[in-house]
Amino acid sequence: MLAEFPSVVDAVRCAAEWQRGMIDREAGMPEDRRIRFRIGINLGDVIVEDDDIFGDGVNVAARLEALAEPGGICISRVVRDQVRDSAGAERPGRSAYLPACRCAAPVDRRAALRQSRQ
Q1: Which range has the worst mean pLDDT, 7-16, 57-66, 93-102?
Q2: Which of 26, 64, 66, 79 is most buried per CB count within 10 Å?
């Protein structure tokens, strides 16, 4: 799925809410039946033609999506700079080709508690 937002802060908030919502919706499901989305967010120029969107901004977001952990969000450096005070992204390492930050996947607290009791 591809989504375009007028605000990068809105894009990050939506992604975080989406990932947290998936945890809540699938709370009673076995782990092997859960859906884990990977989300990549970039801020850049895009081209819109008819019902299609493409360009470097989209291509970088797709590459970031591939870097994200299942259930996680990967954002570009420019996104991190724009939302630094709002999103709480961590930056574990650098890439010479694709500078990026990873936001940790939301924690399923119920599953973590069940595991700690076993």
Answers
A1: 93-102
A2: 79
CB neighbours of residue 89 within 10 Å = 20
Domain annotation covers residue 2: no
Structure tokens at 62: 């797709």
- Record the pTM: 0.71
**CATH number of the structural domain spanning residue 110:** 3.30.70.1230
Write the CA distances from 118 to 27, 85, 94, 113, 115, integer angstroms.
18, 38, 37, 9, 5
Q: How confident is the model at residue 111 (pLDDT cuts 50, 70, 90)?
A: low
